Amino acid sequence: MLITVHEFKTILLQREDDIVQITLNRPDRLNAMDDLMFEEIPQAVSMIAQDETVRVVIYTGAGRAFSAGREIAALLARANAPEVFGVPKPAGREMDFVAGLQMPVIAAVNGAAAGAGMGVALLADFRIASESAVFAEAHVQRGLTPSVAAWYLPRLMGVAKAMEVLLLEKRITASEALDYGLVNSVVPNDQLMNEAWILARKLAELPPLTVRFTKHCVQQGLNDSLESVRVSAGWAQMLTRMRTDEQKISPTKK
User: Fold this and answer.
1) Positive or negative CA dihedral for 41, 42, 48, 49?
2) C-beta of residue 14 within 8 angstroms of C-beta of residue 47
3) Which residue from 111, 118, 176 is spatially nearest to 152, judged by alpha carbons?
4) Which of 26, 49, 106, 116 has the fewest CB atoms within 10 Å, counting from its CB?
C-alpha cells in the first residue's frame, strides 16, 4: 500500500516498503514542468538520496501524460529576459535530480513524454511504456539546443535516427521506441504501474550496495575506458566484501 511521504504542490512522493514513487502531478497541464516543480523535485530527490533504506525509485505522470516538457510560460519569460554575458549554466541542469540518484530508477511512461519530459525519461535506468506513450523532441523548433536527448539518443538509436528526432521533430510511438531500444517493454495502459512495480520489487531484492556500484560502473563506462571501469569494479568488490555480507559465493560443486 502506497503511503504519502511528503506533501508537495506539483508532485506526489509516496512509498511502499523500500520502493519510492514520484508522480509528476499537474495533470491539467499534462505535467508540464514549471519553476515550482523544478524546485520541488530536487527537494524530494534529496530526501530519497539521504535515505539508505530506499532501494528503487519509480517515477511517472498523473493523468494522461508523462510530461509535456518545460512550461511554455517559463520558456517565454526566459526568452524575453535581458541577456547577461558570462559563463553559462549547463543546459538541462534541471535533470540533475534524476541523474544523481545511485539506486535504480524506473520511468513508467504513461503518455506523451516531450522535450524535457522525454529527457527525464531517458535519464532512467529502465523505461516501461504504455501502449499510448509517445516520445517527441521540440527544442530545435523553439530555437533551443537539446542537451539530454542529444547525448542519449545517438547512443540508444544511432546517429541517423537521432537526428530525425532532434531536428525534424519525429514523434516516436511506443512500439517504435521498443524497436529503437528506447524502452525495455511496452504494456497495455492499465498494466503499466503494475509492471513497473513488479520490476521494482525484483530490483529491490538484489544486493543494494552491489547494485549501486554496478550502476556507477555502467555510467562511467559510457565515457571512460574499459580499464578505468575494471579499476572501479575492483574497488567496489573490495568495499562490498569489507562492509557487507552481499558477496555470497558458493563453493564449486564437484
Assistant:
1) positive
2) no
3) 118
4) 49
